[in-house]
Amino acid sequence: MRGRGRFLTAAVTVTAALLCAGALSGCTSDEPVGGPAGEPVAKTATASAAPRPSPKPTSLWDVSPASVAAVGDSVTRAFDACAVLADCPEVSWATGTDATVNSLALRLLGPAKVATRSWNLARTGARMAELPEQMAGAAAEKPELVTVMMGANDACRPTPALMTPVDDFRVSFEAALARLRAGAPKAQVYVASVPDLKHLWSTGRLSPQGLQVWKLGICGSMLADAEDLGPAAERRRAAVQERVVAYNGVLRDVCAKDARCRYDGGAVFGFRFDGGQLSPWDWFHPSRDGQARLAELAYRRITKE
Questions:
Q1: Is pLDDT at 47 greater than 70 in this prediction?
Q2: How far is CA 191 from CA 11, 31, 106, 111, 295, in A?
Q3: In a 10 Å sphere around its CB, with 0-12 CB exposed, 13-18 middle and 19+ buried, how is residue 128 labelled?
Q4: Residue-range domain boundaries for the chain
Q5: Class of the 68-302 domain?
């Protein structure tokens, strides 16, 4: 029996050593793996505590704001959407009351509250230098959300030389957000990108009516001599396109520094307006259908968790 006991002890020792070699738990070579009678030596292994998951950061963004103020230019005023050379704010993508457009305010607030809980402070023809004043007006209403669509008129000048410099554009946008924060520190801000003006040119130039209207001087930096495909005209349009891309970079970067600001990620710039989504009077501003598409893009971004 003594020989059998020694055999069992040796077997346990070898088996334990093999298990130790392949395991990740702590075994040390200088400790006995079995007692004199072949009994395993009791050993308490301290299990490492499971790492606690990091708490999910609390978002400052509310996906269902209860009031909306809109600032910007002619697009937010729905210029040329209902009649020639006229604003039509009732079909505005931001604060309109028209059910066919289903504006952002209608989607967020419902029809009963749009009249009392939304404000359209945009102005046709406005450029970024005017945004601080508009933002101060928006802050006075203490809205939960402010929408911004501004910058097309900074690029749409009679010539590229008259376009707003990028640094000036940045200073004005930063000042606008500062004015808002001074009066409404917790207001959320949705910033739409500047539309792709070169795409509007490539779409509208196929319309004889559009070509005639553009000769009256609308957005000359991009739309002048719309049928000219020569090198000089192409360089001019490329310069305008480059400036629009730079403006959108400013909007993105400045917005990113504010925890309660959301840039649209280039959604408006990337949207491919077709003929039915452009005004039949100027082939440049959004039609009712175009306004509806802008409302949809904004709502999707604002309500994203």
A1: no
A2: 74, 68, 18, 24, 13
A3: buried
A4: 1-41, 68-302
A5: alpha beta
